[in-house]
Write a structure and sequence with these properties.
Helix content is 41%, strand content 14%. The longest helix is centred in the C-terminal third of the chain and has 18 residues. The protein binds 3-methyl-2-oxobutanoic acid.
């Protein structure tokens, strides 16, 4: 049995902080798991960070299944959460149940994430009643960027803030094991965190959340600094390191220094 289950994450509220990360492949999933993250999210941010799209909207079920299965093969202890892509759960609850089932059965995920609050509470109830652990996601919901006009901070007006509180309460009453709060004011995230019985996992939502999540490519410094949100902290500069390594290789192959005798079979 894995060290982290959805139940354990739910019960960690108030006891331990949850440093979560995304991953999209076997190689990096192994490393983030070894680093001790309790939850690895195979985010539909895959569409942007790995596949080069401008938004998460183009991510497909087949892409998400393919990458989730790779992450599952790399993870020993963390809970693996698959992000349900745009239009894999919105059209009907039946479609949502079938697609969530594919993530658990075909890809080996431990849970799924869906975006939305009150609007999705009934679906969360059906998923959890049928054995699918669900991570909620409110605030900036990237699958709605075409409708809301971009990647914008949410919850700044009192009515919006009140709606987000209602969303969080509805999701926790419906059975989510935790809720992602994205791009909302720190004070609102703190209020929601105090109000709900499940952990909140913030991204651009300040320090009062029960956990944090970052997109791995942002943390590693693989995202161009100009398209990186303010809430990201770069813990490495892999873009520069990869460029330097690739340039060194190009130079050595052109100059004849690689491969040397030590890289050659007798
Ligand atoms: O797709 C993703 O990576 C996410 C996180 C930003 C929470 O939804």
């Amino acid at each position: 049995m894995k060290q982290w289950t959805a139940l354990k994450i739910r019960q960690s509220k108030g006891a331990t902080r949850l440093p979560c990360l995304t991953a999209y492949d076997y190689a990096t999933a192994r490393l983030v798991d070894a680093a001790g993250v309790p939850l690895v999210l195979v985010g539909d941010s895959l569409a942007m960070s790995v596949l080069g799209f401008a938004t998460t909207v183009p991510a497909t079920m087949e892409q998400m299944l393919h990458h989730t299965a790779a992450v599952v093969r790399g993870v020993k202890d963390a809970l693996v959460v698959a992000d349900m892509p745009f239009m894999s759960y919105q059209a009907s609850d039946e479609l949502a149940l079938l697609n969530a089932g594919r993530f658990l059965k075909e890809a080996g995920a431990d849970a799924v994430k869906i975006e939305g609050g009150v609007l999705r509470a009934e679906l969360v109830r059906k998923l959890t009643a049928n054995g699918v652990p669900v991570l909620g996601h409110i605030g900036l919901t990237p699958q709605s960027v075409l409708a809301i006009g971009g990647f914008k901070r949410q919850g700044r007006q009192p009515a919006e803030a009140a709606q987000l509180e209602q969303d969080a309460l509805a999701l926790s009453a419906a059975g989510v094991f935790a809720i992602v709060l994205e791009c909302i004011p720190g004070a609102l995230a703190e209020k929601i965190t105090k109000a709900v019985p499940v952990p909140t996992i913030g991204i651009g939502a300040g320090a009062a959340c029960d956990g944090q999540v970052l997109v791995l490519h942002d943390l590693l410094g693989l995202t161009p600094p100009e398209s990186q949100p303010r809430f990201v902290k770069r813990y490495a500069e892999l873009d520069a390191a990869i460029l330097q390594a690739a340039k060194a290789y190009v130079g050595e192959v052109k100059g004849g220094a690689f491969p040397g005798p030590e890289h050659t079979y007798n």
